[in-house]
Amino acid sequence: MRVSRVSAVSLARSVSRGERRSIDLVREALKAAEDLAPLRPLISVVEDAEQQASIVDERLRAGERLALAGVPIVVKDNLNVRGTRTTCGSRALERYVSPYTATAVHRLQAAGAVVIGKANMDEFAMGSSNESSAFGAARNPWDASKVTGGSSGGSAASVAAAMVPVSLGSDTGGSVRQPAAFTGVYGLKPTYGRVSRYGLVAFASSLDQVGPFAAYAEDLATTMDAMAGHDVLDATSLQAPNRFVEALGAGVRGMRFGFVREALGVGNSASVEAALERTRTLLESLGATVGEVSLPTLEYGIAAYYLIATPEASSNLARYDGMVYSRRAAQGGDFNASMSASRAESFGDEVKRRILMGTYALSSGYYDAYYSKAMKVRRLVANDFARAFESFDVLITPTSPFAAFGVGEKSSDPLSMYMADVDTVLVNLAGVPALSVPAGFDERGTRLPVGVQFIAPALADERLISVAHALELATDREFVDARPPVEVASLDA
Ligand code: GLN
Fold first, then answer.
1. What is the β-pairing status of strands 434-442 and 139-140?
2. Is the CB of 171 under 6 A from ligand 1?
3. Residue 406 CB contacts under 8 Å (≥ 6 apart), including other chains
4. Closest CA to 410 of 350, 344, 473
C-alpha cells in the first residue's frame, strides 16, 4: 500500500479553494487508518470525524479562512478530545471519556483540522519504544519488526505512513523527537510553556510539552502558528508572538552551529555519525559557521531526569485510585484494599517501577540524596546551555544514538531503554526547544531513518523551523520525501 504524501498546507489550500472537501480527506485518512491497523498506530478512531469534517466544510462555505482547512490529524491518547476515549495507553483509563478538549487540540480544530484518531503510546508516556502500551506496541512502518520509538510512537507512525500529514505528541524526555527520528519525520519539542498543557494528561509537569510531528517544515510552522501561545487555563504558558511561518525561508547564512562534543563519536552508530557529518557539510555550504561546544552535564542527564520525572509522576498518578476516574478492581474491602487492588491491576510494570522509584526519591531521608541533588544538576544543565548559547545560535546532537531497535530487544532491560534518551532529556531539563530532523538512513538491514537534533535557546523555536526548511531545500527533500515501503498485508503476524 502506498498512501501519497501531500503537505497539510497544500491540502488546506485545495479545500479552501473548493477543489476538495474535508469530508473526502477525512474518509481517505480513515481508510488509511483501517489499512494500517495491523501496525497499531491508533488506540481508537474518532467516531464523529466525518461529522466534524462536514462542520469544517460548512464553515468554509460560510466564508471562514482556515490555515488547516479540513486537514485530518491524529493526537496522542493523552490529549483530551471531548467525547473521545483518552486512555493514556493504560488499562487504568480504558473507559475514560474526555468531557473537554485540550487547548492545543482545540486551537488546531479552530484552524480547521479534524481529529480522526487517538494515537498509540507508551503507558502514561513512560517509555521509548511504545512497548509499554496496554493495547499492544505500535510498529514501525519502515520495518514492522522494529519499534516506532516512544512514547508518542503512534503519532509518529501515523505521519510516517502518510495516514495524516500532521499529528500531536507529548515530550517529557524525548517522546516526540525520538519516535520522529525512528520513523523519518520531523518532531518538535517546543520551549517549555510555548504550547498550553491544559488537557494534556500529566506525566512530569515540569518537563511535559505538547509537540507536533509533520513531514514538511511548512506544516510544522503552520501547526505551531495555530497552536502555540498563552492560555489562561495553563499558568505556565508563555506570552510570545508566533512567527513560525515567517521563519520559513529565512535561511541559515551566518548562523553559528555548535556540535555537542559529548554526544559525538562513542556510542553512536555509523549511520548516525554519517548523518551528522552530512549535516555539517550542508550547513557549511549554506553559509553557516560550524564549531564544537561542550555540555559537560550530558553524562548526568539520564540520572537527573529519572530522579525528577519519577517523583513528579508518582505524585501525578496518585489520582488514579479507582475512586473517581480510573478502573476499580472488582474486589471490595476498605478504601486502602480497594485502591491497592485497583492500582495493582490497572498499571503495567513500567508505570509501577516509576511510581516506586519516584516515591522512594521523595521519601524522608532520601529526598536530599536524590531529588534535591537532581534539582541541583538541573540548574547546572541550564547553566551549560546558557554558556553554550553565548557562542552558538543552535546546538546539534544526534536525536538518538542509533536507528529503531527491534521489538523486544530492550524491553527486559529498563536501563538500556532509558539510555536510548541520552541525547534528548537535557533539553527538557533546561526547558529549551529542540527539533528532530530526518537526516539519513541506516542501511545495515532494512532501510531505517536516522535523525539529527537541533537545539535552540528558550523562545527561539522559530529558528529551528528556519534550519529545517533550509536543509529540506538543500537536500532537495531527499529525506523528508522518503516514504516507508509499508506492506500492510504482511503485518498481520
Ligand atoms: N523515554 C522517556 C521516559 O520514558 C521520555 C518519555 C517522554 O518524553 N514522555 O521517561
1. unpaired
2. yes
3. 145, 146, 147
4. 350
pLDDT, one tens digit per residue, over 326-336 is 889 888 789 89
Residue 65 to residue 133: CA distance in whole angstroms: 38
- Cell reading at 97: 471519556
**What nine digits make up the cell of 82?**
471531548
Pair type for strands 256-260 and 139-140? unpaired
Q: Is the dihedral of CA 130, 131, 135, 139 positive or negative?
A: positive
Residue 491 pLDDT level (bands cut at 50, 70, 90): low
| 175 belongs to the catalytic site | yes
What pLDDT sits at residue 4?
Answer: 61
- β-strand 72-76 against 114-119: which pairing, if any? parallel
CATH for 8-250+464-481 (3.90.1300.10, 3.90.1150.10, 2.70.70.10, 3.30.300.30): 3.90.1300.10
Look-up of cell digits 498518578: 317
Distance between CA 344 and CA 348 in Å, rounded?
8
d(CA 467, CA 206): 27
Identity (one letter) of the amino acid at 276?
Answer: L
Q: Is the CB of 49 under 6 A from ligand 1?
A: no
Q: Contact 157/148 with Cβ under 8 angstroms? A: yes
The pTM (predicted TM-score) of the whole model is: 0.97
Dihedral angle of Cα 94, 134, 210, 36, to the nearest 10 degrees: -100
Q: What's the pLDDT score for residue 2? A: 45
What is the position in ligand 1's atom list of the atom closest to the CA of 152?
A: 9
Dihedral (CA of 325, 329, 332, 335) sign = negative
Ligand 1 atom 10 nearest Cα: 126
Decide whether any atom of ligand 1 lies within 6 Å of the 172 Cβ: yes
Run of H or E residues at 76: strand 72-76
- Cα 303 from chain centroid (whole Å): 21
Query: Ligand 1 mean position to 112 CA, how many Å?
Result: 30
**Is 37 in contact with 136 (CB distance < 8 Å)?**
no
How far is the C-alpha of 175 from the C-alpha of 149, rounded, in Å? 8
Residue spans of the domains in the chain: they are 8-250+464-481
Residue 141, helix vs strand vs coil: coil
Q: Under a CB-based contact definition with an 8 Å cutoff, are residues 79 and 86 in contact?
A: yes
Helix (H, G, I), strand (E, B) or coil at 489: helix
Q: What kind and span of H or E run contains 143?
A: strand 143-147
Q: Do the bridges between strand 256-260 and strand 289-293 make them parallel or antiparallel, or are there none, so unpaired? A: parallel
Taking only the tens place, the pLDDT of each residue in 59-112 is 999 999 999 999 999 999 999 999 999 999 999 999 999 999 999 999 999 999
Q: Cβ distance 180 to 186 under 8 Å?
A: yes
pLDDT in tens, 361-374: 999 999 999 999 99
Cβ atoms 479, 439 nearer than 8 A: yes
The reply to whether ligand 1 has any atom less than 6 angstroms from the CB of 175 is yes
All three cell numbers of 446, joined, read 532494512
